[in-house]
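pasting for the record
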Amino acid sequence: MENLIYYAACLIAVIIGIYLFKRFVGCLIRSVITIIFIAILAYIYVYYIA
């Protein structure tokens, strides 16, 4: 019975870890895309408008 509780706790920990990892990576990817987009707009502004 102890092994069953141990495996259930490990399974719950893995599921929570995957959920948090996906959430963090999604936010990180959006941040990187936003920074790249801002850099492209700054490049266009400096070389074509200014």
